[in-house]
Amino acid sequence: MASKITKAVIPAAGLGTRFLPATKAMPKEMLPVVDKPAIQYVVEEAVAAGLTDVLMVTGRNKNALENHFDRMTELEATLELKGDTDRLSKVEFSNDLADMHYVRQGDPRGLGHAVLRARMHVGDQPFAVLLGDDLIDARDVLLSRMLEEQAARNATVIALMEVDPAQSHMYGIATVEATVDDDVVRITGLVEKPAQGTAPSNLAIIGRYVLRPEIFGILERTDPGKGGEIQLTDALLEMAEKNVAGGVYGVVFRGRRYDTGDRLDYIKAIVQLAVDREDLGPDLRPWLKQFSSTLE
């Protein structure tokens, strides 16, 4: 029987160049999505799935990430003195979300290298990896479903989502075999950003993984690819093709996902989340309808 997974790894060492100059002095993970930084959504998702031990793989100029999940006694005291209990509770909420740990990536050598930096913390147990650019709506189930499948199969599990075939060249795409479960497939191949018209399916990898610890040994000997980066996809492909530690399975997610790694999609994510908020939606929805009617 597989042991219960409690550890999550969140790579957060990227430079966020697509959001310059906003990210010149602030980590891209701290950009607000409505009124919370993007990274908090990710940590909350991990905790909701039972992953209470969170390791963040950071880089230079990322101190704001650590500060956000730590106490700010001066601010808390000021809010308490004012009797502003609502804002105080929101500030305090992030303090004790999870048992937070941090490690520097050092050289920016890709996602595979970032995952490899978690080896000492993770040890020889399965663990989850959550990418901060992908936000999964809290009302939809993904990570918990992946953890269930990992426990049942004791294998590596990745998240997949159907995409427009015309957009397949923008993603890692999986070759799959069906299983008895409608939302679970067995991965037989992976290709990173295939040329247009050559994708083996329309199932794209999105930023959630539940990995067996054998991934570390494979990553250690994975040759750097484009840009000198160690690709996690290359290591997963080897696990799938050689059936390492039970192989690789995919959970097909059909819920709401918000991409905050692109400027336009980031704006869309804020709007999509805000319209469903009880405190913002009633005023925002009619304004959006009126505004959209003025557009040609």
TrEMBL record:
GO biological process, one term: UDP-alpha-D-glucose metabolic process
Source taxon at top rank: Bacteria
Keyword Nucleotidyltransferase: yes
Pfam family, one: NTP_transferase
A GO term for molecular function: UTP:glucose-1-phosphate uridylyltransferase activity
KW Protein biosynthesis (keyword) present: no
Gene3D superfamilies reported in the protein's UniProt record: Spore Coat Polysaccharide Biosynthesis Protein SpsA, Chain A
EC number: 2.7.7.9
Keywords for the protein's UniProt record, in alphabetical order: Nucleotidyltransferase, Transferase
Catalytic activity: alpha-D-glucose 1-phosphate + UTP + H(+) = UDP-alpha-D-glucose + diphosphate
SUPFAM superfamilies listed in its UniProt record: Nucleotide-diphospho-sugar transferases (SSF53448)
InterPro entries in alphabetical order: GalU_uridylyltTrfase_bac/arc (IPR005771), NTP_transferase_dom (IPR005835), Nucleotide-diphossugar_trans (IPR029044)
Domain Nucleotidyl transferase: 7-272
Family: Belongs to the UDPGP type 2 family.
The protein, known as: UTP--glucose-1-phosphate uridylyltransferase
Organism: Rhodoglobus vestalii
Lineage: Bacteria, Bacillati, Actinomycetota, Actinomycetes, Micrococcales
